[in-house]
Recover the amino acids of this structure.
């Protein structure tokens, strides 16, 4: 397999930047609001596994757009999972009233 030309590397980098940046507003809103009631931990767990596999694939190919985008996406996805887990634990452990 030959290496893509500079134009396709640029397209890959732009695509990687946009899809990775799409996670930022959700992570930011969740962190600021502290409300993660609507977050599906199963979906984020499956997404994290898929992203980790894409990261391994990018490492195997030596493709920097894949490596960078998936490394950042994995961190953001894991942040959502940790926040959701902590939120659910806090809800479970909260006093229920008098």
């Amino acid at each position: 397999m030959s290496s893509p030309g500079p134009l396709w590397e640029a397209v890959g980098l732009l695509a990687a930047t946009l899809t990775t940046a799409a996670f930022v507003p959700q992570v930011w809103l969740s962190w600021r609001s502290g409300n993660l009631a609507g977050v599906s931990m199963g979906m984020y767990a499956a997404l994290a596994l898929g992203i980790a596999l894409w990261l391994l694939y990018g490492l195997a190919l030596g493709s920097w757009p894949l490596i960078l985008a998936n490394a950042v996406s994995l961190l953001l996805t894991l942040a959502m999972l940790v926040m959701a887990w902590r939120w659910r634990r806090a809800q479970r452990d909260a006093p229920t009233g008098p």
